[in-house]
Structure formats: C-alpha cells, structure tokens
C-alpha cells in the first residue's frame, strides 16, 4: 500500500463508538401529555432547534421523526462511502414529477428518513455561499437575514479544524480564522487524503485565470477553494446532525425524541378570532390509528422543503382551491404555500483520463478497495477518509462565457411570469418578479457565482446555482402517507438552459488546458461530436438531475409577495407555528445547503428564545 501511505496522514486508532444515550421514547405512553415545543423532523434544522431550546431545563421539547436511528453502517459513517445510504431504509426515496422540460424523466431526489435527516445521506460538502447570496435575502425585504446577521450562526455551529500540514504543504491551503467557530457542535475539517488528480485540476483552474479564494467561509465563496467536510478529525467519520446535536445532550431529560412516527397534521383551533396551534397528530403508518400531543407554546416544522409544505396543506394551511381538491377544509388562506419551489440543477459531464490512482479504483479493483478499507479502519487514513469534493469552483457568468451580455439581455427582456406554473398565485408572482429583477442585477456582477464545478477524476459536475425556474409542491391527498407532488421546475425557464450550455462549453475549455493534457482526456459525455447549442440543450434536458438542494416552498418574505413565513419564521395567519428548514429560503445560495440550514436553525433558536 505504498501508493496510499505516501499520500495519506496517519491518525489515532478509532475509538469504539459510544452507545446511544439520551431520552429516546420507544412508545407513545412514555410521552408527556404536552410539550412547550414540538419539533417535526430530526434533521439538521430540527435537531439544532431542539438542542438549543432544551438548553433551558425548564423548557420541554419533543422531536417527532418518521425514520429511525441508523446502525452506524459503514456507508453512513465512512466518508469514502458517503451517499451509500441513498435508496436504503434511511431514504424517503422520493422523486420529482416527470416533466417535458427534462425529457419526461422522474428525477430521484433523496431525502433523509433517519435521525440526522439528509446529513446522513449527503456527500458531506460543508461550504457557505458568498456574501452576495445572503444579502439578496435582505434586499428582498427580509431584515436581519443578510450575511452579517447569519455569519455569527455559521460560526456558532462549528467546531472547526484548520487544514493540516499535508494540505498546507502540498496544496498551499489557506483559511481565515476569523470566519470560523471553535465551540460549536459540528465537526468541520479537511479529509487527510486528497485524490492526486485534484492537484492537476487545480493547476488547470489557475491556468485559465480562476483565482483561489483564501477561504470560502468568509463570504468570498468565488473562484476555486478548498472545501471542508462535516467530519470528525479524530475518527475521520461523518459528523451528522445526530452526532452533533443529539448524541451530545445525553443528560437533558427535558428533550424527548420519538422515532417511527410520521406527522399527519398540525392541530389548530380558533380563539378570539385567531387561529392557534393546539397540538401535533402523528401515526406509525397509513393504516394505523393516529395519536396526538399537545403544544404549549409552538410547533416547529423542520421536515424539509418537500414535506413541510405538504404538512401545512393537509393541516388546512394553503391555497383554498388546492385544499378543496384534496378534501381538506381551509384553516388559513395562504396560497403561496408550496410555491417558489426550486433546486440546484446538476449536470454530469464525463471524460476518461489516464492516471494511475483514481476514485474508480475503489469500485474496479477489489484488492485496492479492501486494502484501502483496512487502512481506514486501522489508521483512519487513505482514500476512504475522503468524501470527495475537496476542491470546488464557483464562477460568475462573465468568468466562463463570452455570451454573458446576450444572456443578460434575454433575462432583462423576459416576462417573469411567462415560465411559472400556470396556477402561481398573484402573491407569489409579485414576489418572483422581485426575485427576477434581483437575479438579473446580479447575473453579470463578479460577486455572484452562477455555476459550480466539481472535479471527480475526469467527471466534471456542473451545478446551476441561481436558477430562474420555479415549480411547486402539492399534497396529493389529505394523507401525508401519500407522497406529495414535487416539481422543482427544472429547465422550464430557457435562461437556465442557456447558462448550462455555456457551462458545458467551459468544461471543455478546462479539459483542454496544458495541465490536464497529461491525462489524455477523452470526452465521453456529452461527447465531442455534440457541439451545437441545440444538441447540447437536448443533452442537458435528457441528463440534468438534482444537486439535492430543494428549497423555497415556504418562502421567507412579505405575505403579499408570496411569503409564507415572516422575519421570525412564523407562519402567517396562525399563532404558535414556525418553519425552520430550507423551505424558508427565498433564493438558493450558491453553495451546498446543509451549512446554511444549520445557520438558519441556530438563528431561529435565538429568535424563539428572544435573544
């Protein structure tokens, strides 16, 4: 294993994982009759809020989770196997509705159905967006939700470990200590192994004039940068919401968690001409009796951008016309619920390369894989310590195409309503018009990344960061056990397709650099013979997928502009109900969303506590 040990750093032996501790309730009879706060969903947002609210021993908190605890399987804990839980019992196994804009394909959109949520399923990319990404939330009228307001909460979440000597000496990795936290629950560190072709890709990035950011965490997530992961630097295992925000609170008897129970409704009543939350209803399965728990202060929906709007709708909060169609009585007329739904678009391009040590060795060479796994388990070193994406590139439009002015002109002349779902309510249309104007203003500035590039040994993932397209989430019936109809609207707006076409062309520019020439790259997808914009567009429609970042379906904003929650994340028209998850994001940041969800949840907890 000389070819591995020469690249990896040795670490201490993995200590035995501690047994589960904490107040986990196995049956309904163990629950209190009521709780101050009932949190729906035990993912990044839900566990963060529950942890922080339960810091006050006099406050009672219950978390209700549809999934179960994972069993520390290798594909959950080992970074090199990250993503292996997708499609298992820990995944809701949801899909986006098939639409013409993506060649009538139903696109899989994994969602965590496990304590820890999607932080157990994802590829452990722990980056932030740029200052511009969050300041635009505030520009849309959401005071207190800009970069300066969120930065303390990004830091509060972190237990940061800087790049090690290997990263510094071999890659000249840098960091800005002022942008990081050291006292948080979430381990944030850099894998001790980096696939060697990454260094050549970085040389290619420099060759075409892309700058290297000192640290993406300080609001300058532009150009190329070294990306940390939610990874324990001692055991080199995944640090998920479960490890960070649940396992650390074993002494808190005021924080309860029940698993295997799916929330069916938020219970409400009318008091003094106001609608108030009274409880939360749940059941273990569709054909099983429901139970309920009373809420003293608030219910907090943290079920994610697909399931949170569904829960609101089956609870009677949403568009009366839609609610009537699924036989649900309207409790709060709030038509914007489920609208403004969007996601980052992922496009995978593939070049075969000639290199001695590549990621595919783990799947194509059984001996290499077995020896690498043994190295991980005995020394916490080698390829399996790396969840990939050690180096990311985020580019403004002007950085990768000469067609920026043309695309901007098309955007400015476009009717914002022309490509929205036909049933978009007037409020959401008004809000989207403001978003459209803001997207137009930012698209040709150097402060706003439009595309992301992820290198994976010849495969180059192209990610669309600020999509113009919008879709919706709708409950399919009055039962939350029937999957909601989720449509992210992928590529419905032609601007998104035009940007991705230029993105593929720039991928070819990178592959033609002198740096990468040593690998003798051969384009497999889309293929060198696919050259016209029309043919590239067809390839994109037939291949586009998701970066797993659904958001926006319960938007933060003014009610008359499509907002579902106010600046304190309170749902309009009802007392005692908040939304704390990615569904509140009015616009996606140019980043992977996990870190932002943690920051939003940390901030939400302080808002609830009145800090």
Automatic annotation (TrEMBL):
What GO biological process terms does the UniProt entry carry, in alphabetical order? secondary metabolite biosynthetic process
List required co-factors: FAD
User: What superkingdom does the record give?
Assistant: Eukaryota
Which SUPFAM superfamilies does UniProt cross-reference here? FAD-linked reductases, C-terminal domain, FAD/NAD(P)-binding domain
Question: Keywords assigned by UniProt?
Answer: FAD, Flavoprotein, Signal
Q: Determine if Flavoprotein is one of this entry's keywords.
A: yes
Protein name, entry field: Glucose-methanol-choline oxidoreductase N-terminal domain-containing protein
Say which species the protein is native to.
Answer: Neoarthrinium moseri
